[in-house]
Amino acid sequence: MTTQFVHALALGIDPAWRRLPAEERCRTAEEMAAELQPGTAVTTYTYSMIGLQAGTDLLFWSLAATLEALEERAAALLRSGLGGWTAVSESFLGIIQGSQYVKKPTPQEQSLFSGERARYLVVYPFTKSSDWYLLGKEARQGVMNEHMRVGHDYPQVRQLLANSFGVDDQDFLVAYETDDLVAFGELVRALRGTESRRSTVRDTPILAAVHRPFQEICALLGA
Questions:
Q1: Cα–Cα 20 to 30 A to 87, which of 57, 79, 149, 202?
Q2: What one-character-per-residue DSSP string does 203-222 give?
């Protein structure tokens, strides 16, 4: 598997922007839209979190071969017209690599940048306890086998687990993509009852976002 970097960038818009004249809002939104044109270095998908979580309106979900490319994409968005009215509310980095627990990933795993986008994306940081890493390999594999069996009962939910060791505060960046949030909630409830839950230290904040083309998001914002 080719190593790739993934970035979840959540931005909150200054309420004062909403009080600007309509033509000014449209101009600043168009400037940000121009920075989202498809390119070769970075793949970015846009999501709305308007009114869903305090302090966050936009979520940009990006993939690139280098950290520098993600940095340049984020910088371009933040210096654009609308970007000047935003503040970073959350930012999670990860490196997509092969899992030590999965010999042959299924299409349900490691596939959030392939195929068509599902309606919803849920992203959060994830950290395990020191005791987990001090367990033997076989013990950890057994716990993860149970975890993965539960996940496979919900094929309508796709998952990505990216390593964040050394590049961010958390151990992993975890993301789920689905058209069925009710099924996703049932999956999370089921995972709470597995042995792997004992080793969880942190799995918040959770960012739940709706996939929309950027122009559609602008219309919701009034731009």
A1: 202
A2: ----EEEEE--HHHHHHHHT
